[in-house]
Amino acid sequence: MTTKVGFIGLGIMGTPMAANLQAGGCQLFLYDIKAPAASLTAGGATVCASGTEVAKAADIIIVMVPDTPHVENALFSETGVAAGLSKGKIVVDMSSISPMATKEFAKKINALGCDYLDAPVSGGEVGAKAASLTIMVGGPQAAFDTVKPLFDLMGKNITLVGGNGDGQTTKVANQIIVALNIQAVAEALLFASKAGADPAKVRQALMGGFASSRILEVHGERMVKRTFNPGFRIELHQKDLNLALQGAKALGISLPNTATAQELMNSCAAHGMSGLDHSALCRAIEMMSNHDIAKA
Ligand code: NAD
Description:
By secondary structure, the protein is an alpha/beta fold. Helices cover 52% and strands 14% of the residues. It has helices at 14-23, 38-42, 51-57, 68-76, 99-110, 124-130, 141-154, 166-194, 199-206, 214-225, 234-251, 256-270, 281-289; strands at 4-8, 27-31, 46-47, 60-63, 90-93, 115-118, 121-122, 133-138, 155-162. It has a 6-stranded parallel beta sheet with strand order 3-2-1-4-5-6, sandwiched between helices. A 3-stranded mixed beta sheet has the order 7-8-9. α8 (166-194) crosses α10, α8 runs parallel beside α13 and α11 runs antiparallel to α12. The longest helix is centred in the middle third of the chain and has 29 residues, at 166-194. The N and C termini lie far apart (48 Å). Nicotinamide-adenine-dinucleotide binds at residues 8-14, 31-34, 64-66, 70, 73-74, 95-96, 121-122, 124-125, 231-232, 236.
């Protein structure tokens, strides 16, 4: 494949995703506000001076930045992607951002004669490196079909959910499930530990049964081993739960347990833990009970 692909936002996730596209034969045009990884340029990628330059050089432009304002800036600032687009190009936002803002961004890109896909991912840095990300897509079928070979280089479980915004809505749903699971695992392991059982053995015993989950496996292990280096930072999960709670307000529904999970994240942030992995949510629950699941 010799597709010309733009990649904007080369952080924890973007760098390995771009590396997989490069390994798959794509010609890459990169832009980040920081210098992109030397391994990508050594592999032949071109570093551009702006998003506009990326959009002029590439046919498909992928964005992987932290939050809604960063996507807006990457696409619509004076030197952003939109200023360099011409008819027929496709913009693919793989960041996790607001579903409502996504619909507005898509309309503005469509007005330039280009398609827009929202395609957030799940699977973390591990999944990004292993090209095993789950990719949840919103947008037109034809654009999805065109970009699918690129998605295949970065992920495994790839679903076109519906129109623009539906990919981001799916990702918010994903983040609700993950946050509530982390909370459940933390409370269960705290209970077991305070009762005098070995939390590592409890986790091991539960892994085969109905309560098993990827969260019990991966985050449960982090809680027991006290390895809270990120991974997925608490501040990014706070952003996703904000999207869930703002969405709930706009839709007129109640998400009581999501609100609790967000308050626990807020408590972690108040204790200086915004940059830790989201498995450190257990620290908030531990502080409430004055008992740690395990000793560091
Ligand atoms: P990160 O902070 O490591 O990387 C973001 C990159 O975007 C940085 O290199 C930053 O310099 C760059 N950037 C910011 N604003 C920019 C702009 N206007 N123009 C160009 N570059 C800009 O974040 P990450 O962990 O790679 O996460 C990226 C997105 O993926 C987020 O939306 C996050 O929620 C989502 N996500 C992350 C994970 C994870 O485990 N880290 C998992 C799934 C989804």
